[in-house]
């Protein structure tokens, strides 16, 4: 009768009593010892007779399945490498500059989307020098009247039917005076950044005469602003303190901004720039320039200072 025997992980089929192999040399018994070497010799009587059917060694199988720690380690290492790669790239990604295009009109502050003074938006985010023209006289709280289409790059560059406010973007207006300019820029130093001189950028500041800056219904004499065109009166400490940093003035009938009214040499008037046409006009009343001022030639000689409201 045939019997099954589990030895060292192998099943041996043998004759009654033990597994035997026949050959011309006689009967031999094949055993697998603990070292997995098959040994032959002896007869079935010398073979241990423990015929218990041992089930497969599940522990050994389990151990075999654990042979893969290197693979698992490699997989973990791979995961770590992947994470490390992402961790390395992530900070770099956050530093990549994204081109969002040109700044909006609201950021620029000038209605035409370009600044001609205080051009550094990072340094001067709430004040702008806006070049352009307008033909509706005056500087005080003028409402926009041509859809803010004015400005040297605007759709209505010549400023036909426009006021000073039409040079400023929505949410911006002509700076009211010295306190606003000081708050927004700390002074007039940035007015020439981005400017093609000579330029004068007016504010809504005026005076009662003789460069004595003031506010009120009777303060309509002359214009005061930033730039390098006009009459700088810093040598007169009394009135300079009233106007600073707006110590550049149009003078009577805007002669400090023109080339034909015999302005004194102490002013940087337009007569010092041969070939440039007169762009500023302040009417014929030497006491009310702020009520009568208009400007032509939108690409020359400045315009207004606009402040975010």
SSE pattern: EEEEEEHHHEEHEEEEEHEEHEE
Largest sheet: 7 strands, mixed
Number of strands: 17
Rg (CA only): 48 Å
How would you classify the helix and strand content by structural class?
A: alpha+beta
Which residue ranges are poorly predicted, with pLDDT under 50 across at least 5 consecutive positions? 1-90
Provide the domain count.
2
What's the rounded overall pLDDT mean? 80
Spatial shape? globular
* Quaternary structure of the protein: single chain
Strand content: 15-25%
User: How helical, in percent, are the residues?
Assistant: 10-25%
What count of helical segments does DSSP give? 6
What is the rounded distance between the termini? Answer: 109 Å
Give an overview of the whole structure.
The chain is an alpha+beta fold and 309 residues long. The protein folds into two domains: 3-57, no CATH class; 105-308, no CATH class. It has six helices and 17 strands. It has helices spanning 58-65, 69-95, 105-108, 178-185, 237-243, 289-292; strands at residues 3-7, 10-14, 21-23, 26-28, 30-32, 38-40, 127-131, 172-174, 199-202, 206-207, 213-214, 224-227, 231-232, 248-249, 280-281, 294-295, 301-308. Strands 7, 8, 9, 12, 13, 14 and 17 form a seven-stranded mixed beta sheet that branches. Strands 1-2 form a two-stranded antiparallel ribbon. It has a two-stranded antiparallel ribbon with strand order 3-4. A hairpin with a 2-residue loop joins β3 (21-23) and β4 (26-28). The longest helix is centred in the N-terminal third of the chain and has 27 residues, at 69-95. The N and C termini lie far apart (109 Å). Mean pLDDT is 80; it is low at 1-90.
């Amino acid at each position: 009768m045939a019997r099954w025997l589990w030895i060292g992980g192998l099943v041996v089929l043998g004759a009654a009593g033990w597994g035997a192999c026949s050959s011309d040399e006689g009967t031999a018994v094949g055993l697998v010892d603990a070292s997995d070497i098959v040994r032959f010799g002896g007869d079935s009587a010398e073979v241990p007779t423990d015929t218990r059917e041992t089930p497969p060694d599940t522990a050994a199988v389990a151990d075999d399945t654990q042979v893969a720690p290197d693979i698992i380690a490699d997989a973990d290492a791979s995961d770590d490498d992947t994470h490390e790669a992402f961790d390395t790239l992530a900070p770099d990604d956050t530093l990549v500059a994204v081109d969002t295009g040109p700044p909006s009109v609201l950021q620029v502050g000038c209605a035409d989307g370009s600044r001609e003074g205080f051009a550094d938006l990072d340094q001067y985010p709430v004040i702008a020098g806006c070049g352009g023209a307008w033909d509706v006289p005056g500087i005080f709280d003028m409402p926009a009247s041509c859809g803010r289409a004015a400005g040297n790059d605007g759709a209505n560059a010549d400023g036909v039917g426009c006021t000073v406010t039409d040079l400023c973007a929505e949410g911006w207006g002509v700076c009211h005076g010295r306190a606003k300019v000081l708050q927004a820029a700390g002074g007039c130093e940035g007015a020439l950044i981005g400017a093609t001189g000579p330029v004068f950028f007016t504010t809504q500041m005026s005076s009662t005469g003789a460069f004595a800056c003031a506010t009120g219904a009777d303060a309509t004499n002359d214009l005061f602003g930033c730039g390098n065109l006009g009459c700088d009166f810093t040598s007169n400490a009394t009135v300079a303190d009233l106007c600073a940093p707006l110590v550049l003035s149009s003078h009577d009938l805007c002669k400090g901004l023109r080339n034909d009214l015999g302005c004194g040499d102490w002013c940087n008037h337009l007569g010092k720039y041969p070939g440039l046409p007169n762009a500023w006009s302040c009417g014929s009343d030497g006491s009310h320039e702020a009520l009568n001022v208009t400007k032509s030639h939108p690409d020359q000689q400045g315009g207004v200072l606009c402040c975010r409201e």
